[in-house]
Design a protein that fits this description.
The structure is a homodimer. Chain A contains two helices and nine strands; from the N terminus they run αβββββββββα. Chain A is mainly beta.
């Protein structure tokens, strides 16, 4: 069956059947908020204890109702301070460390990725109206926030997910 | 100290000091790939067993190197089939179920959110060149893929994160 599936995949590829093309149309998003914290310059680490306020647009105040009933949130943000020239479509040393084996940039959490979208799972310390205080967000002051989602372990937590050995170094 | 911090927050707000404005500039991303599966129309659930192929742009082949050493990946995608009129900046009944208490849309995982960015944590079943096969991705055929990240439990897994009681219904 696996052999058959492989053959069919190949056939579909040859005939161009049912293979959707990668869309060329750009995806455009308006920031829903901004990060406020004490970090002014990009850095690799040392984010664990940083406290940040997510200041959400006034017109989205109602959209936050109930977010405070979750202990953790997922923050998507626009890594807008990485110059286009620093991005890559190829391989990099993770964490910029030449002792670590090169990986494709999409196989890392590097900010130099093709689409500079950052993702962080952070504890929500408190909500005050349209301001959410979080800890450990790895985004500098002024970073545009694209989305905020409640963290739901049933969907988002895979404690025993496997990672390569070098990540433990 | 908490009282002082609150007062200072208030002062900063009044004086407009060090409060970055929410950026007005849109964030623009070019899809890095597309979802191929058998699901042709949006639906609420029944995604668990759906197998999907993520077809990544040819020029990003190297960027995937090493992704197959992770058991799970995070997929960010553009929910481009939700009409703008169905999006909301306010409250909704989660899962469209009127028996569930209304929540702000950002406090749910609804696709009707202000920026239609979908996020799914999925097992990576196999990689073949620029094609990643995954299970349980809640995106229909043709959905643009914006980013792929390796799932790292140390960053992404919070098994005991708290959620409100109604989510168990």
């Amino acid at each position: 069956m696996r052999w058959l599936s492989r053959r069919l995949d190949g056939l579909r590829g040859l005939l161009g059947m049912r293979v959707p093309a990668v869309p060329r149309e750009p995806a455009v998003f308006r920031p829903i908020g901004v990060v406020r914290n004490s970090v002014r310059e990009p850095r690799m680490d040392g984010w664990e204890q940083v406290r940040s306020d997510l200041i959400v647009r006034d017109d989205l105040l109602d959209a936050l109702d109930g977010i405070e009933t979750y202990s953790h949130i997922i923050v998507l943000f626009h890594i807008d301070r990485v110059p286009e020239g620093e991005r890559t479509t190829g391989r990099i040393h993770p964490r910029g460390d030449p002792r670590l084996p090169e990986q494709g940039v999409l196989a890392t959490r590097s900010q130099r990725r093709p689409n500079p979208i950052g993702l962080a799972v952070v504890p929500l310390l408190r909500r005050r109206k349209n301001i959410l205080r979080v800890r450990g967000l790895d985004a500098i002051n002024g970073t545009p926030v694209l989305d905020i989602k409640p963290y739901v372990p049933r969907y988002d937590s895979v404690p025993d997910a496997k990672v390569p050995d070098w990540t433990a170094r």
